[in-house]
């Protein structure tokens, strides 16, 4: 396992949270061009060198063209609860390996609200870098309390298949992840409703029923 869980200073404009010294996870840029440029500038100032956009429905390549020091990569999937194939996780891991080979590189994986696809991509990145599956979930949820990581099970299947894991390891690891989910429940419909409402209001942060302020 490389990297350690880390919580950086909260960004003022951009919707991203620091998972480790090399990885951030979050939501997309604003639809307003001026605000989007301000968010991208803040992310660049925070050290982001690579962006992986996991949205099927949109892309921010035109904004990132204004930042030649950042490599933007689009590999979008739908967020409809569908099974996610191993090829997507292969592509995510390949991009991340290349991106993070450079000293000091920092990767942002994001989707629309930073609830499912972006965090699931981040999970695949951590698994590929040798993280324990439960430690990786802890790091992502600890950095971003609204991260449901809905496609973590697909990422885990991909990871175990690549490792050539035997029956016992597969069963034990899946049981640990299932236990983690039971111990860390998240009301995803509430999260999505709150996030969409905050986006409509143009807010950077939003709150769950717990009163905990989190990124939109």
TrEMBL record:
Residues of the signal peptide = none
Q: Which PROSITE patterns match?
A: TYR_PHOSPHATASE_2 (PS50056)
Residue span(s) of domain Tyrosine specific protein phosphatases: 86-145
Gene3D superfamilies for the chain: Protein tyrosine phosphatase superfamily
- Return the protein name: Dual specificity protein phosphatase family protein
Organism (species)? Nocardioides zeae
């Amino acid at each position: 396992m490389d990297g350690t869980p880390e919580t950086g200073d909260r960004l003022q404009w951009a919707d991203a949270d620091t998972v480790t010294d090399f990885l951030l996870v979050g939501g997309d840029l604003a639809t307003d061009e001026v605000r989007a440029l301000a968010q991208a500038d803040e992310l660049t100032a925070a050290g982001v060198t690579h962006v992986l956009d996991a949205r099927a429905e949109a892309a921010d390549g035109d904004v990132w063209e204004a930042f030649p020091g950042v490599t933007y990569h689009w590999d979008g999937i739908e967020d409809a609860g569908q099974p996610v194939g191993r090829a997507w996780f292969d592509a995510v891991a390949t991009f991340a390996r290349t991106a993070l080979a450079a000293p000091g590189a920092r990767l942002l994986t994001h989707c629309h609200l930073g609830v499912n696809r972006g965090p699931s991509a981040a999970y695949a990145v951590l698994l590929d870098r040798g993280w324990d599956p439960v430690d990786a979930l802890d790091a992502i949820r600890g950095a971003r309390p609204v991260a449901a990581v809905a496609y973590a099970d697909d990422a885990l299947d991909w990871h175990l298949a690549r490792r050539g894991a035997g029956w016992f390891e597969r069963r034990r690891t899946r049981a640990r992840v299932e236990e983690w989910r039971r111990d860390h429940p998240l009301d995803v419909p509430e999260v999505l409703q709150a996030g969409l409402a905050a986006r409509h209001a143009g807010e950077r942060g939003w709150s769950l029923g717990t009163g905990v302020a989190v990124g939109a």
